[in-house]
Amino acid sequence: MAVSNITFHLSKVGASKTTSWFNMRIMTFQSSALLMDKVPQANSVDETDVLIENVKDAGIITLNRPKPLNALNLSMIRKIYPTLKGWEGSKRLVIIKATGQKAFCAGGDVKSVTTALDLPDGKKLGQTFFREEYTLNHLIGTYKSPYLALLNGVTMGGGVGLSVHGKYRIATENTLFAMPETAIGLVPDVGGTFFLPRLKGKLGYYLGLTGHRLKGTDVLLAGIATHYVLSERLGDLTNELLETNSSDIDVIIKKYQPNNFSPEFTLNPYLEQIDHCFTASSIQEIIQKLESDGSDWAVKSLQLLKKMSPTALAVTFAALNKGAQQSLAECLKMEFRLTSAALTKDGDFYEGVRALLVDKDQNPVWKPATINEISPKDIMAKFAKLPATEELDL
Description:
This protein is of the alpha/beta class. It contains 17 helices and 10 strands. Helices cover 43% and strands 10% of the residues. The N and C termini lie close together (9 Å).
């Protein structure tokens, strides 16, 4: 199996004053809920939702649904995948970007996936969406041509899957990254179980379990982006990349980074606490360590975790541990089993989407309601292999 070409790093930076991230994090999925409510059904087809351009020996893919923040649906996936397959190996460079300044891609069409469960064959729609999305994620992670994503704006969930597995990921001052899946009873998918545990220390566990969001240079310093360029310079950068005959893309991108560039990571004051508290054998132990820590950061982190689906937290923790030892393909296959197991009307995924995107009461009723009620046996059952005809084939 080909190895993904992700390279992760975390710059050593000085401490900086943190923002009130707890309140912002609570708003993250609520904001996503508002925009996802506007996403068409997953099987809809819009001929203009993705724009494809051939420019000499390069290719450009533009996500073109700015009103719902370029949220990803099946129609878009079914345009992007064959385009990339057709270009693979023949293009000197492939660039993926988005229309508008607000978002690269704010996520996937989870509302249509769960509301389809009210239909007799609704689970198949969900499996089709996740199967094709993860197949696209794997193609990006093993792509033979240089793949460059311009992460200008909101980049969450499905948008992360379209970018983080590629060789070049360029953040701007507008970039807003998050993997907020535990808030709707799901795991950080689209290869999240692969890249999150490979971030420095336990940072990926913290991001994946809490859904904490990163802005601007923090996306670079966390190791999620590979470069940082101001949004006003993206046009010039893109033009030079398309016009040059040079194969040294990294050198060209670095020309456009700000002068005297030495940003500070806003999570730097908490990295030791993150490593200590999120190095544990279970979610219960993480909670115990946060309770023992007692700092404002720990109290806020604890309050945040207690709002998430207990089942999603336990499954995510186990999946990150497994993913740390697996290839991208193995992680995606594991995630497909987990999302398939979540496609049920009596599960936390259905309930989480109901509370945040359908009824919008912001009051999900999780089953079980607490971490201590979770059976390890039930959690492990969610990792069970599917029938051979249903497994994700990469």
